Structure formats: structure tokens, C-alpha cells
Amino acid sequence: MEQGRIIKVAGPLVVAEGLVESKMYDLVRVGDEGLMGEIIEMRGDRASIQVYEETEGLGPGDPVVSTGAPLSVELGPGMLEQVYDGVQRPLDVLQAQAGAFIARGLSAPALDRKRLWAFEPRVKAGDAVAGGDVIGVVQENVVIEHRIMVPPHLAGEIVEVREGEHTVTDTVARLRAVDGTVHDLTMMQVWPVRVPRPYREKLSAFEPLVTGTRVIDTFFPVVKGGVACIPGPFGAGKTVTQHQIAKWSNAEIVVFIGCGERGNEMTDVLMEFPELTDPYSGQPLMKRTVLVANTSNMPVAAREASVYTGITMAEYFRDMGYNVVLQADSTSRWAEAMREISGRLEEMPGDEGFPAYLGTRLASFYERAGKVRSLGSDEREGSVTVVGSVSPPGGDLSEPVVQNTLRVVKVFWALQDQLAFQRHFPAIDWLTSYSLYLDKVTPFWAERVSPEFRARRDEAMAILQREAELAEIVRLVGVEALSPEERVLMETAKSIREDFLQQNAFRDDDQFSSLAEQDALLRVILLFRDKALEALSRGAALDAIFSAPVRERIARAKYLSAEDLAEFDAIASEIETQLVGGEEEDRASVYAGGER
Ligand code: ADP
To answer: Which residue ranges form the domains of the chain, and what is each CATH number?
Structure first.
């Protein structure tokens, strides 16, 4: 433990000298209170330190002690249901120590040292194991089984196993490595946050992360292990979308990083998340969630740490074989912290004052997403899907953080306040959003949903795009300028928007649609279009077609549940009957008038 002295304090940045043996990214304790910091630049014996707590009161001459180890997280039972700050201190423990206002220099272990966990071994003495192998499990709570793995880089023979109740630091197994040394294995691993956790192999990600939100799943899907970005103009529904993804998506584990939004927003996240119910288990969603949230008295620099703390925990659950969805809110605030620190380091600024390495930093964060085959011999597969939100000043999507993010993410859900004003929810603009995973998920859709799903999706998209063009003509010269076929298209586009895209997150019968329901819904909407055109060619009147009684049923079809899929067939035959088939009198109304 090397000790140095502060020579300068500049906001969250402290410069110290006398640290000859320290390295970049070593964790240090600053001042008499032992504030947490990380070395982010070394020049000779001079270290620039990013401090994760308020530096007020520090001054030249104050001590700086290097721990000689990088900023790391503790990984093991007890992470779930926790709310951590950016450097993985459990907020409830800090609060118990210091009251509502968290004092500086506190430390608390991330994992409870006293709590006992029932360790059920999955190996026995004599077994050969390697890094990543599961040596036992702990039922962490009613929802999640925690798999205890041999740390990466360790291999050998199990010489002892201790079943039963243990704390995270108790020895649960002993391993004799190839070189003969014997290692005590505990239920806890310590891992440096800036080093991605190793895996055996990166796999191609093609399985959709089903969110149950139709505009996402059908139009702009993300895959398990994919990367997506969502901007958040105020009030456009970012929070609702994030909650929907956390609750409904088919990922077992949720990691939410709240890196310092405006004013009270952080406390909103702290209040809201613990209130959410997991629709699958009926238990609080927190049972399968880890929350990382910077508190208001932590300076911006801590946002930097929180992003890495969060993704390292996500990777650890991935290594167990889980699908994890990680949401980082907001990466713009993280980038602003980078800008501030870079400015204090007097680095050469790039675009809009952001450091030149902004793009590389963002890219290397998103690169930690992915689907992998884990270390270990049991062919476990897991994934980390990253959904980063951006909050550009003034909603300007051309600014550097958004632009650098769009370079690396493959999905963009363009939340728009205009749509929110019109109460079109989710307010995800179908004309500017995109997903580069469409071709990846198409074979999966064809096999598991229906062979026509992709074609239906593309057709619906084409109709929406054409609607935007025709809307311009309508604005200029009125709807009369459109041909009857174009009017059918406009009516179909309206139906896609209202009966498919609009989805109420607060209605039990609408908040989640399975892929099968989404496909069935598109099928009837497009079938109506086909039959409308057919009826038209047979001389039916537009008004009559548009007011066919079955339309009411189509409009309500989104409230049908997965068990009602047969209902969609009934709607389809009603469309046939009312528009082109069945008894003369059934469709009489449609043909009344007879003119086009
Ligand atoms: P933001 O986080 O972007 O400021 P919110 O997510 O809090 O916005 O959404 C603002 C309001 O918009 C919500 O309180 C709700 O009334 C409405 N809203 C957003 N998304 C939906 C949705 N999918 N269904 C119904 N209402 C929604």
C-alpha cells in the first residue's frame, strides 16, 4: 500500500505525487476520510485521480493511499434485489450507517458477509474442473438460482466439497491446481470492472429478445445479445418503455444503471423499480434485478464507474447461462462526465468538447454485449443485451454522443414527443427507427412464428412509408386527389397505426403481445386490405367497405390473448364474408351504392 500526497484538487480530479509503483486504474483512497478514487493518468510518480465522492475540503498535502488493485466488483449471491451506487456500495447499508444523507468515505462490502446461503454442490471430490464450471448452486430467492462457478483461469481437481449453509467468504470447495497448489473456493468472485469477463466463444445472436411491445418486436426487433439505443425527449415515454422491457422481455435478469439524470430523476428510478411486479412470477421484479444508481451526493465522475460496475455484473449472470438485459440511463450523462474529466486533465478536446476517445469508449462498452458460450464444460449459453438511452440537449440527434452511439448500436427506437402529444403510444416513430437484426431474426420467425411473418412485417412497413408520401398530397390537394386504391392504402395504414402500433402499457390485456399474436394481428389487418381491394374491383363502395362491421372487431383484436388465436381465424372469415363472400345479404351493405 503505497502512500502519496495531494498536490492539486480540481473538482472531481485530484493530482497526487509519490505514487511510483501505482498503475493506471488502480483504486486509491484519498484524504483522511479515504474517499474512493481511481487513477486515470500516470506521469512518472504523478497520478491523476478521478474521485468518486465530493472532493470538498481536500487540499494539497493530504494523503493518498493506493490499494494496488483495480476498481473491482464482488460477484456472488446477494447481488439480486440490491440497489448499489456506482462503485457497488449497497445503498441500504450506507444509509443505515449514515442516515439519509450519505457521508463520504464510507465503505461497505457489496455482498453481505453475515448472510448464510444453502450451498448445494454439483461436484464431488475427485472431479476435474476448469474455469467456469458450476461447482454448486444456491437458490438465491424464489425466482433465481445462483450458479457458483470456478473462477476463470483456475483449473484442477476438486479435493473437498462443503455442502450446507455458508457465507460468501466461507470455503465451499477446495481445488488442487495442476501445479499442485490448493485453492479455497468461495461463493464470491472479485472482478475488475474495466476488464470484460472471459467466455469460451462469442455466438451469433439471432434469437429475438421478445418484449411484447409490438412496434419493437415486429418492426424494430432486438436480439438476445444485441445492442439498442433509445433517445428520451421529456415525457415521450422512455421510462414506460424501459419498464416494459425490464418486466416483460424474455431475459431472466435485469440490470438497470441509472447514471445521473436531471435533478430528482435518480430518486424516481429508486422509487419506481422496487414497485414493479414481475408478470411471470408475480413476485417483485427486484427479485431478478440489480439496480445501480448514483446518489445525488456523488459527483459526475461516479457515472463512469457505474457503467462498468453494471456491465460486469451483467456479464457474470451471463456466464451462469442467463439472458440478461442491461439498461443504461443515460449514456449522455456518462459522456458528459467523461467530458468534464477530460477537460480537467487538459486533454485535447474533440467534437463539442468531448474527448477524442468518446467513440472508442462507447464502442468498447457496447462491445461487452453479446451472446456467448460460457467458460465451463456444460455448453452453457448466456447473453447480455444492452439498451442504452441517450438524452441529447435539445433533442439534437446530430450531436456527438448520439452519433457515436448510432455507429455501434444496431437498433434505434426513435421516441418522439410529437407522437406522445398525439397520445400515440409507444411514441416510437416508425419512419426513423431501424433495426439491423431483421435478417437475423427472420429464420427464427419463420420457424417459430409463421413463414409469412417477415413478409407481413415488410408489407406493413411499406404501407406506412407510402402513407407518409401520400399524406403530403392529401395535405396539399385533399383526399379527393387519391385513387380508390390509394384510399384503401391510407385506411390500412391508419389501421396499422391504431390497431397494431398503438399499445397501452397500462392495460392488462394490451401490455404484452406474443409474437404469434403480433403475426395474427398483422395478418387480419392485411387481409382486410386485400379483401377491400377485391371488393373495390367488384364494384363495392369505399365508404361501405370502410364501415364494414368487422372493422370494429379488428380494432379490438389487440386485446385478445394468446389463448384466443382461433379468434383471429374467425375475424378472417368474417372479413371474407362481409367483403367478398358468403351470402349476398351479408355483404349487401358493402355493395350498396355500387359506385366507386
Ligand atoms: P419519459 O420517461 O420519457 O419522460 P414516461 O415514460 O414517464 O416519459 O411517459 C410519460 C407518460 O406518457 C406516461 O405517464 C404515460 O401517461 C404516457 N405513456 C408513455 N408510454 C405509454 C404507453 N406505452 N402506453 C400508455 N401510456 C404511455
So the answer is: 2-70 (2.40.30.20), 117-187 (2.40.50.100), 201-437 (3.40.50.300), 453-580 (1.10.1140.10)
